[in-house]
Amino acid sequence: MLNPLLPLGRAWGDLFDEILLLLGCNLIWVCMSGPLWVVAFYALLDGLGWFAALVALVGVLPAGPATLGLMAVVQRVAEGRAITLNYFFASMRQYAHSGWACVGMWVVGMVLIGLNLGFYSQIESWLGIVMSGLWLYALVSWCGLLLYAPALLVVYEQPTLRLVLRDSAMLLLRYPFFSLITLVLMGLFGLLSLVLVVPIFFFSLSLLALWSMRATMCVRREA
């Protein structure tokens, strides 16, 4: 059985090996992608669901290329290859369309799942409970795709979104315990980073990207 702590340990090692480079990539990602998604988050807290969804979708424009650029960087870091910050910007251009498609589809899925969860959670009957449970399962599965899909987009030589989503789903089904524990640990780390704030600006996104890449490499070797 795969050890879900193994990718985390290796990700921390990778982070310290290239701390200055990954700090720079992390800051760039936050500056590009953070503002619009922060606005969307606070709009959601204020009950402006549709406005929050619209802003989140607009946020895909900078976040898509930045996310795939960061994944391309951490792939080279995980493989121990030499790299500079210029590679981050080059990868943003190279994977722009893939980034928009992947992150955009994930955000659309999250919006739809969130709307359905909100709707069925207000129904006080067995139907509301059952449907809320199903949509909660869909939420976990959808987040699980994000664990593998961005990494596979940069690992595959000629990826298509359909192929990447299919393979990501297969990895989730084949390694459910490993994937679930990894997602839970990532979620806890993400919440801690949001509470402390400072890690978000300096290393949290880079570590999560490394963690995702290491987890993907781990299950691909096992497969």
From TrEMBL:
Q: Does the keyword Secreted apply?
A: no
Leader sequence segment: none
Q: Which UniProt keywords apply?
A: Membrane, Transmembrane, Transmembrane helix
Instruction: State the source organism's domain of life.
Output: Bacteria
Which residue spans traverse the membrane?
20-44, 50-74, 95-115, 135-156, 168-185, 191-211
State whether keyword Membrane applies: yes
This chain belongs to the protein called: DUF624 domain-containing protein
Q: Which organism is it from?
A: Candidatus Viridilinea halotolerans
Higher taxonomy:
Bacteria, Bacillati, Chloroflexota, Chloroflexia, Chloroflexales
